[in-house]
Amino acid sequence: MAPVRMLAWRAAFLIAVLVLWELASGRLVAPLFISRPGEVAVKLWAMVANGSLAFHASYTAIHALAGFALGAAVGMAFGLALGRWNRVAEVLDPFLMGFYSVPKIALAPLFILWFGVGTEMKVLFVAMIVFLLVFLNTYTGVRNVSREQITILRLMRASEAQIMRKVVLPSAVTWVFAGLRLSVPYALIGAIMGEMLASNRGLGFMLADATAQFDTGGAFAGLIAIIIMAMLLNGAVRLAERVTMPWKSAESERELSF
After folding, report:
1. First and final CA of the chain: distance in angstroms?
2. R_g over Cα of the chain
């Protein structure tokens, strides 16, 4: 489908949702629960005008971006290392899977106990969530590298660094970016969760404060700000993916042309 037609369909869908929302508010559902598009727009504009949205969004962005960068870097490093060290990976596998299975919200009180209620707690909490996702995807990507190619390079007396650079990294990069894309919403979830539990600033605090005052319009305005931030962060990851893997973008364009 042509890009212009796609944008037209998306705009039509958005307009239809807003119209249905407006018609349902006060008729099918009480405005207290879903507010109205007009009221949400007024609240959002007021937050932009008085600077409160930028103030809270900046803190959430810092928590999410710093935690995302830290968790992604450590997750990729550990994924690459354990993907190549079979014995260590076999020993740690059940412990890592068990830790991954723990609901992350259950760890939030411990992070508050260990690191307090400041920025460090939110950043490290986000990093922990992102680390697990990026690590598992990177590890899986490394483990799925063609063994025949590695064997051929070893027969050619290639060093471990050369094997990593020539075969492992190019083969695993698709898995790495899949983990990064998957981690984007979870990074924001971690930041928002940390701010709702222990903060007096950030979009998470703004959401909790709005709902505590039964300000549904303000809560929806905060949700829209979070959605926009998620789209921007996801777009940045996709841009990095296109720069790193230009051949994949070319393949996608050819598929779309058909």
Report:
1. 9
2. 22
Instruction: Tell me how far apart the alpha carbons of residues 104 and 102 are, in angstroms, rounded to a whole number.
Output: 6
pTM across the whole model:
0.83
Q: Is 1 exposed, middle or buried (0-12, 13-18, 19+ CB in 10 A)?
A: exposed
Mean pLDDT per 10-residue interval, the chain, length 258 residues = 81 92 88 88 91 91 93 91 80 81 85 88 93 89 77 75 77 84 90 88 90 89 90 86 68 45
Single-letter residue type at 216? T
Q: Each residue of 164-174: b (16+ CB within 10 Å) or e?
A: beebbbebbbb
Handedness of CA 229, 235, 236, 241 (dihedral sign): positive
